[in-house]
TrEMBL record:
The chain crosses the membrane at residues 33-55, 67-92, 98-126, 147-169, 206-231, 243-267, 279-298. This is Olfactory receptor. GO terms for cellular component: plasma membrane. SUPFAM superfamilies: Family A G protein-coupled receptor-like (SSF81321). GO terms for molecular function: G protein-coupled receptor activity; olfactory receptor activity. Keywords: Cell membrane, G-protein coupled receptor, Glycoprotein, Membrane, Olfaction, Receptor, Sensory transduction, Transducer, Transmembrane, Transmembrane helix. InterPro entries: GPCR_Rhodpsn, GPCR_Rhodpsn_7TM, Olfact_rcpt, Olfactory_GPCR. Signal peptide: none annotated. The keyword Nucleotide-binding does not apply. Residues 47-296 form the G-protein coupled receptors family 1 profile domain. It is found in: Cell membrane. It is a multi-pass membrane protein.
Length: 312
């Protein structure tokens, strides 16, 4: 383990590398797990690239809903690429070390993308609310300029919120503990290893979490409450099914993402729940990006028709 002497503290050593414990002792399963995660990564990137390509190529998909969807697919590619290549390399080589700055960079990119996705999902929920609850004003309210502005604000806000945390994280010292009980560098497992006072950064993390998750979750829940209320007022069964089909895919993605995300940070972080937290982290950080293209394509009639026509 690489150690660097610090002149700031007597008899203290600052850790320059961490060991990602990952999913535990999997030496006998390295090859199968390598193949599994490689397949997941290829499927995730390929599926999301397919969505982006279809949206760009088909004029019928040049609508606000598919504009947000293509941005979500791009975000999912970045999301997965931040984590999976390192996980795959760990299984392939057996080397689970990661440098301090590499760990901080991975955490910064991952958390930025997670925060951005919260805002992007909220924007998609608002888009569906306008389309179903205010259809006569939809074209005016959700124009091209508004769509671009919502996407840019999602990326900028996510980046700014996490940059504050990252700047504070770089000021912490890591002295003795160097084993991260996770398969990637997440914020909470990382700061627990610090030998510095983490009260300030934990307080800022709580504020940024409230600013990042709570408003977007409230917007999403409120939007779908109005959407469901509007759908229930439709008298014909076919009309209800048609209205609900336009937002069911997005509602599925939102439920999986927010459900697993909240369970990771709400479930008590005791030894009993560590493996459970890893499972939920796997769900929202790796499995959800892979499933999104299938959810949107298999549950969306318009996308299925375009894919079928392209293949034929």
């Amino acid at each position: 383990m690489k150690l660097m002497k610090s002149s700031e503290q007597q008899n203290a050593t600052v850790i320059g590398e961490f060991i990602l414990l990952g999913f535990g002792n999997t030496k006998n399963l390295n090859t199968p797990l390598f193949l599994l995660f490689l397949i997941i990564y290829i499927a995730t990137v390929s599926g999301n690239i397919l969505i982006i390509t279809l949206v760009m190529a088909e004029k019928h998909l040049h609508t606000p809903m598919y504009f947000f969807l293509s941005n979500l697919s791009f975000l999912e590619i970045c999301y997965t690429t931040t984590i999976l290549p390192k996980v795959i390399a760990n299984f392939l080589t057996g080397n689970k070390t990661i440098s301090l700055w590499g760990c901080i960079l991975q955490m910064h990119i991952f958390c930025t993308l997670a925060a951005t996705e919260c805002y992007l999902l909220a924007a998609m929920s608002y888009d569906r609310y306008l389309a179903i609850c205010r259809p006569l004003h939809y074209v005016t309210l959700m124009n091209c300029k508004t769509c671009v502005l919502l996407v840019l604000m999602s990326w900028i806000t996510g980046f700014v919120l996490i940059s504050v945390l990252t700047s504070l994280l770089t000021q912490l010292m890591f002295c003795n503990q160097y084993k991260i009980d996770h398969f990637f560098c997440d914020f909470t497992p990382l700061i627990r290893l610090s030998c510095s006072d983490t009260w300030v950064i934990e307080s800022v993390a709580l504020v940024t979490s409230c600013l990042g998750i709570l408003p977007t979750f409230f917007i999403t829940v409120t939007s779908y409450a109005f959407i469901i209320q509007a759908i229930m007022k439709i008298h014909s069964v076919n009309g209800r099914q048609k209205a609900f089909s336009t937002c069911s895919s997005h509602l599925t993605v939102v439920s999986i993402f927010y459900g697993s995300l909240m369970l990771v940070y709400i479930v008590p972080t005791t030894d009993t729940f560590k493996n459970l937290n890893k499972s939920f982290s796997f769900l929202y950080s790796i499995l959800t990006p892979m499933l999104n293209p299938f959810i949107y394509s298999l549950r969306n009639r318009e996308v299925k028709v375009i894919i079928r026509n392209t293949l034929c």
